[in-house]
């Protein structure tokens, strides 16, 4: 068994949506606009463009080993449903999308921040579950912390204005999902 990873909070980006996406009047409760406006995107370098494209491919259910290699081997993925602390466990999430979704497609993105060590973008993803076939668009704020080699070290996904903590029963359930989903989705072992 591998040694425990460093505390994920040391890599975690906790963007301030109010600071990044304030649009008074758009959302009466928060004043934050989570809807992506591609025409407002911050320009990206070719390397960062590749990372965002690979991440969007993964959200769209077309997981590939090439796309998965934008992540560092000991990367962290953190969303409301799961917490994964290796690239292999992250692959379990992405390889699972086609198993539970009839379709998943990226409708729009808007990069709101780009530095050498982080990329933050708004994402509108449309999901259609296999069981219900009720299509729903979800707006997210996706934050990627990059390591010194330009790979994603921490991937945080905040859905529809919801941030979440890493404590209590919710954290336990997220970690169990991250630790065990690979048994069902069976991503390539080389990841």
Residues in β-strands, percent:
25-35%
Molecular shape: globular
Radius of gyration using CA atoms only: 16 Å
Mean pLDDT: 83
Largest sheet: 6 strands, mixed
Q: Count the DSSP helices.
A: 7
Main sheet strand line-up: 2-1-6-5-4-3
**Which structural category do the helix and sheet elements fall into?**
alpha+beta
User: Ends: how far apart?
Assistant: 16 Å
Model regions low in confidence, pLDDT < 50 over at least 5 residues: 1-8
Helix content: 25-40%
Total strands: 6
Q: Which terms summarize this structure?
A:
191 residues; alpha+beta; six-stranded mixed sheet; 7 helices; 6 strands
What does this structure look like?
Residues 1-8 have low confidence and may be disordered. The chain has helices at 17-21, 46-59, 65-68, 87-94, 97-100, 168-180, 182-185; strands spanning 71-78, 83-84, 101-114, 118-129, 136-146, 152-159. It has seven helices and six strands, in the order αααββααββββαα. It starts with 16 loop residues before the first helix and ends in a 6-residue tail after the last helix. It is α+β, with helices and mostly antiparallel strands and 191 residues long. Strands 2-1-6-5-4-3 form a six-stranded mixed beta sheet. A hairpin with a 6-residue loop joins strand 4 and strand 5 (136-146).
